[in-house]
Predict the 3D structure of the following.
Amino acid sequence: VAFDQMWARAEQRGEVPPGIARSLVAEAISAPVVQRWLVNGEPVNSALADAVVDEVALPLLRAHGAKV
C-alpha cells in the first residue's frame, strides 16, 4: 500500500508515466531492498537506499519515460 501511494503521488506530479505502480519496473526497483531484508537477512540502510535509487530506480524510470 505504501509503495502504491508513493507511485500515485509521483504520477500526480507528472514525474512518472501512468501505470508504473503495478509494473515490472516498480517491482524491479523494490527487489534489491526485499532481497537484502527478507532473503539475505541483512539490514537495509541508507547506503543501500542511495545505491538502489542511483543504480536501479533512476535508470529504469528514465528508460520508461519518467522525468526524474
